[in-house]
UniProtKB/TrEMBL annotation:
Its cofactor is Fe(2+). This is Peptide deformylase. InterPro entries: Peptide_deformylase, Peptide_deformylase_sf. The gene is def. SUPFAM superfamilies: Peptide deformylase. One of its GO terms (biological process) is translation. It comes from Panacibacter microcysteis. Keywords: Hydrolase, Iron, Metal-binding, Protein biosynthesis. Fe cation binds at C106, H148, H152. Its EC number is 3.5.1.88. Binds 1 Fe(2+) ion.
């Protein structure tokens, strides 16, 4: 089932999400719905708070970026051909490498894209969809998507990395999003 995506301005996007356990109701179905929602909205990552659930769960599929990149981009990133994973109760252990910029967007903040600086490497502890524990290090675009989605479960948004002046310049657009004055081609709910 395709879930509606919560728009900028909703309280759930600013809460630190909680860990879950094996008793979380219909976890398999929820994960399946997360994948379906992400693909239906042309995303490469989706966090539970974006579908109005304040739990520490997100999904990513960086392989989609590599499948759709131009020929001159091929071989540019160390994580090619990408990764598809579920992250439950994720906690970042450490960052590594140099910070680098990339133009990011967010399904909850449609029609806004900005260059965001992030570390090129992230080590993260998490449970997979079978609730098996892992500690892994990711690089490149995969590391970036993980950091972006991880921010969601920490109540943080990519626009929080912008300089104050740039944020001020986007204020009108952000207000329009929170008031539902934006057209998207996926299901979206706006704050009341």
């Amino acid at each position: 089932m395709i879930l509606p995506i919560v728009a900028y301005g909703a309280d759930v996007l600013r809460k630190v999400a909680i860990d879950i356990d094996q008793d979380y109701p219909q976890l398999d179905k929820f994960i399946e719905d997360m994948w379906e929602t992400m693909y239906a909205s042309n995303g490469v990552g989706l966090a539970a708070p974006q579908v109005n659930k304040s739990i520490r769960l997100f999904v990513i599929d960086s392989a989609q970026i590599f499948e759709h990149q131009e020929d001159d981009e091929k071989g540019k990133y160390p994580d090619e051909p990408g990764t598809k994973k579920v992250f439950i109760n994720a906690h970042i252990v450490e960052f590594g490498g140099e910070d680098w910029g990339y133009n990011e967007g967010c399904l909850s903040i449609p029609k806004i894209r900005e260059d965001i600086m992030r570390p090129e490497e992230v080590t993260i502890e998490y449970l997979d969809e079978k609730l098996q524990p892992h500690t892994e290090t990711f690089t490149g675009l995969t590391a970036r998507i993980i950091q972006h989605e991880y921010d969601h479960i920490e109540g943080k948004l990519f626009i929080d990395y912008l300089k104050p002046l740039r944020k001020k310049m986007l204020k009108g657009k952000l207000t329009d999003i929170s008031k539902g004055k934006v057209k998207v081609d996926y299901k979206m709910v706006f704050p009341k």
